[in-house]
Design goal:
Elements: H1 4-10, E1 27-29, E2 35-37, H2 38-47, E3 53-55, E4 62-64, H3 77-82, E5 92-96, E6 101-106, E7 121-123, H4 136-150, H5 152-178
Antiparallel strand pairs: 1-2, 3-4, 5-6, 6-7
The protein binds zinc ion (2 copies).
Length: 179
């Protein structure tokens, strides 16, 4: 019933502009009927000083969090219905606010093919009020390193650097041995 361009707009989160999916970017509808992806809501909740409610970034209305946690907020069934058939079954996600992590709890049995391509956890930032705590910088550094290593170009660059280093070391050792 909607023109195609409008459908495409529906399929993207208004905060991060990512495509909705059935894992960490599941479309979640707030009480004000505005829809955002689970990842963005988790990021907002982690930074919020009021962890029991979510404030809509569009209309500022508050939605109390469900007792069973952020991932149990209602899915936007309209948006979900526009997703491909393989994405109709939403993953069961656990939200650990203290660690700032979203984790896949259960993979829907209908999506075995997707299991390999989906990462099992997602960092959504550090909780407000825990700034400066031990392990904070370590976590950030580690995730940055992982991000760098996962970028193909960076990976190639680091690999060639290592290769050059090995060659230089070998030449140096040969040179020293000859003397
Ligand atoms: Zn989003
Ligand atoms: Zn709203």
């Amino acid at each position: 019933s909607y023109p195609f361009s409008k459908k495409i707009k529906f399929l993207k989160c208004a905060i991060c502009f990512c495509q909705f999916n059935n894992v960490f970017n599941t479309p979640k509808v707030l009480q004000c009927k505005h829809t955002f992806c689970l990842e963005c809501l988790a990021r907002m909740n982690v930074k919020s000083t009021q962890p029991d409610t979510i404030q809509c970034p569009l209309c500022r209305a508050y939605t109390p969090l469900p007792n069973l946690g952020l991932p149990t907020l209602a899915n936007d069934s309209t948006v979900l219905s526009y997703l491909p058939a393989a994405m109709q079954h939403v993953y069961s996600i656990r939200f650990n606010r203290n660690k700032g992590k979203l984790q896949v709890k259960r993979v829907p049995s209908s999506a075995p093919a997707l299991t390999q391509t989906v990462s099992q956890t997602l960092d959504v930032g550090n909780p407000a009020g825990l700034e400066g705590h031990q392990g904070r910088d370590g976590g950030r550094e580690r995730s940055l390193l992982i991000t760098v290593l996962q970028t193909p170009l960076c990976k190639a660059f680091i690999m060639s650097l290592v290769a050059i280093l090995i060659v230089v070391l070998t030449i140096t050792i040969i040179f020293i041995n000859k003397k």
